[in-house]
Each structure stands twice: as structure tokens, then as C-alpha cells.
Write a structure and sequence with these properties.
Layout: H1 9-16, H2 20-28, H3 35-47, H4 54-61, E1 66-72, H5 80-96, E2 100-106, H6 112-119, E3 125-128, H7 136-143, E4 148-151, E5 163-164, H8 168-181, E6 187-190, H9 197-212, E7 222-223, H10 229-241, E8 246-249, H11 252-264, E9 274-277, H12 282-285, E10 292-296, H13 298-312, E11 326-329
Helix pairs in contact: 1-2, 2-3, 5-13, 8-9, 10-11
């Protein structure tokens, strides 16, 4: 069997008796080409199932058809389910418009990979995930006039900043409020780095709920930078000594560590202490007992972020934004 010859832009031009430049203009819709010629070219490429090379198209339009996706360099264990779902949504939306994704790790200080992407013109735009407090990433992208979208609620309003986020503060407020309404008045909060904006949003929601129900917040029961099992052990000991009646964990990874510490100390859940998480995953759903959590449609968050960037890049983005509502899932850990 002989392989079918791939139809090229040269073949289109030759068959129609016009130049390759005219064919290119007719396909892109840019440049001075009559409507009759454009229709003739489009009919020809449909007849032969011709698909323009993305590389050639990019060169003619000064584009790469690549999107840079910046991940925090500590994402490997913490928030892994979040990034997996978010990246899945971004890649799906990008693929619908023939864009590819280039991943790059940053920590807010070391930005060599980002500078290389921009200076070598490898991307048309950038999606910044889990925006950092006082991050210089956004400042750099603004200076270089690179279109970008930030995933994460900014601490302060920034002119021209396009961002999108889950309702972390609202969800934290509602879940904490439910626990307070159940009669729990000594809640501990265990979280990660306060350099991450999502951490601050969840803290604000936790504080809002205490204010709503007029319950005094014990700041000695707030723990941050709990990024290892050893730190989780220390936090657990303080929480139990202080006779807290509930633990609110900022994500499923921290919740899993705290559950392990409680299990080692033979603390029964929910009989001895209640436990909840501000981010859900199958890890917590399948735990015994199953853990009360906040569920977000994070894949939709990724798709919406990519849609916002594609819109900046001049793409015709079809369809409406996906809803970003959250759901409090009450399970056995807080009964």
C-alpha cells in the first residue's frame, strides 16, 4: 500500500493558479483578498482535507501557538489534586483552539525559566497559577507586555490585571459557619504558606465565620507552613493539649497528615474531635470516616482561565464560562 500524499499550500496554489501568499491570506482572513477568491480557496482545502501547518501559520502571524503555564515549584505534593484538575481544564481548552501548553516552575524569586520563555518568544501568553503574595512574576509579565491571566484572588486591585479564582473565602466561611453552628467553639485552622494568596483567602473566610457567629477566635490555634509530617505532629499536640473541639484543614494533603497524627494518638473522629477540609479529593472521600470537605469544580476553573487568555490573544472563543460554584459536602468526620 502506498501512503497518501499530504496536500500542501503549494498544491492549493498550483491547482487554483494563484500565489501561496494569496492562499495564506485567504486562510487567515487577513490581507486584501476578494470574497470570491477566499471562497474558492476554502472550497479547495475542504475538498482535499488540507490542514495548514501550525508552525507555518505561526510564522506567518508571528505566533507560536504555545501558552506558558506557571506552576509553583513546591506543587509536587501540596495541592496535587488541585493542579491536576486545573491543568486538565487548561489543556483541554487550549487543544480546542490548536494551542499547546509549556509548563514552567517558579517560586516568585527564581524566574529564569519564565525569562527564557519570554525572551526566546516561545509563548504567546501565560497563565499564572496560585498567585503569590507580592509576586514579581506579574510585574515582569506586565513590563514585557505579555498577555497573562492569574489564577488566584489578588490582595489588592491591580489596574489591568485579569484574574479568576474559586470562591475560597466564601466556601471557607460557609463550612466554618456550619461547624460553629453545630456548637464547636474551639476550632483550630491548619494551613500552608501565607505567601500563597489562597491561604489568605481561606483564613479570611475562617475569620468571617467567627465574626458572623460572634465566637472568639483563638489565634494560638492557627497553624501555618505545615508542609511536613513533623510539623503536623507538633500542631496536633498543641491542638489536643488546648482541647480544641474541631480542626479545619486548608487542603486534602494537610488533612491527610493531621488524620494520620490523630490515628497514631488513638483519637477517635468524630467522637473526640471533628475534622474538615477546605478542599476535597477522593483521598478524603474514601477515608474512614469520610471527611467533610469543600468541593470545587477546578477543571472548569482551568478552562475558564485559558478562555480568558485566548480572548486576549484574539481567538474567537465559543461558549460561555463554566460555573465555578462550590459545594459543602457533609460527611461522617463532623457528625
Amino acid at each position: 500500500m502506498t501512503e497518501k500524499k499530504k496536500f500542501t499550500i503549494d498544491d492549493v496554489a498550483r491547482e487554483l493558479g494563484i500565489s501561496k501568499t494569496t492562499v495564506s491570506r485567504a486562510i487567515s482572513g487577513k490581507g486584501r483578498v476578494s470574497q470570491a477568491t477566499r471562497e474558492m480557496v476554502l472550497a479547495c482545502i475542504e475538498k482535499h482535507d488540507y490542514r495548514p501547518s501550525v508552525i507555518a501559520k505561526g510564522l506567518s502571524e508571528s505566533r507560536t501557538y504555545n501558552i506558558g503555564l506557571l506552576l509553583p515549584d513546591d506543587y509536587a505534593d501540596i495541592d496535587l489534586p488541585f493542579f491536576k484538575e486545573c491543568v486538565s481544564g487548561i489543556c483541554e481548552k487550549a487543544a480546542q483552539h490548536n494551542y499547546d501548553i509549556i509548563l514552567s516552575l517558579v517560586d516568585g524569586k527564581e524566574q529564569t525559566q519564565l525569562h527564557r520563555l519570554v525572551s526566546n518568544r516561545k509563548v504567546d501568553g501565560v497563565i499564572v497559577t496560585r498567585a503569590l503574595v507580592n509576586s514579581s512574576v506579574r510585574s515582569y509579565l506586565k513590563e514585557e507586555k505579555v498577555p497573562f491571566v492569574a489564577i488566584g484572588t489578588p490582595q489588592t486591585e491591580e489596574p489591568g490585571l485579569i484574574w479568576i479564582d474559586n470562591q475560597n473565602r466564601e466556601g471557607s466561611r460557609e463550612l466554618t459557619g456550619i461547624l460553629l453552628m453545630k456548637g464547636l467553639h474551639r476550632l483550630a485552622l491548619v494551613g500552608g504558606s501565607r505567601t500563597h494568596l489562597v491561604t489568605n483567602s481561606r483564613v479570611e473566610g475562617f475569620e468571617d465565620a467567627h465574626s458572623d457567629y460572634r465566637v472568639r477566635l483563638d489565634h494560638s490555634l492557627l497553624f501555618f507552613d505545615v508542609d511536613s509530617y513533623a510539623k503536623a505532629v507538633k500542631a496536633t499536640d498543641v491542638i489536643l493539649d488546648a482541647k480544641a473541639d474541631g480542626i479545619v484543614c486548608m487542603d486534602d494533603n494537610i488533612a491527610n497528615m493531621m488524620l494520620g497524627c490523630l490515628r497514631e494518638r488513638k483519637v477517635k473522629i468524630p467522637q473526640d474531635i471533628r475534622v474538615a477540609s477546605l478542599y476535597d479529593s477522593t483521598l478524603l472521600e474514601c477515608h474512614i470516616p469520610a471527611v467533610t470537605s469543600l468541593h470545587f469544580n477546578t477543571k472548569s476553573l482551568g478552562m475558564n482561565a485559558c478562555q480568558l487568555l485566548l480572548d486576549q490573544l484574539g481567538e474567537k472563543v465559543d461558549g460561555e464560562f463554566m460555573p465555578l460554584n462550590y459545594q459543602v459536602i457533609l460527611r461522617e468526620s463532623t457528625k
